[in-house]
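The authors assume throughout that readers already know how a fold can be written as discrete tokens. What matters is that the chain and its backbone geometry are given together, residue for residue. A single example would do more here than another paragraph of explanation. For illustration, here is how one protein appears when written out as sequence plus structure tokens.
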Amino acid sequence: MDSQDYPKSNFISESLSFTEREELVALIREYINVFAWNYEDMPGLNLQIVMHRLNIKPDVKPVKQQQWRFCPDIMEAIEAKVHELIKCGFIHEEQHPGWVANIVPFLKKNGKIQVYID
């Protein structure tokens, strides 16, 4: 769906029937203002709901994964996404990481890179 007022893309499954697709498009257009199109559209999230902490035992030795290496084009996409998430306050840089997991990039069908951060 792409509109003059809301130039945002949605991907709709090809497995839907024509009628289901038309109904879904109508529903999305009716409620277009409730969708968060980017991180800035979600201010004031309750940190008790969205933030998690590791439940670790104090006597367990921390696990720090070896840093993965990525090709330059993937690294650019990762850095852009990380900076966007930091700017919006969704993540923050850990100054003294004890437990560290690698960022996992995933290539989506549309060619964009989705970044998973733990």
In short: The chain is about 30% helix and 5% strand. The mean pLDDT is 78.
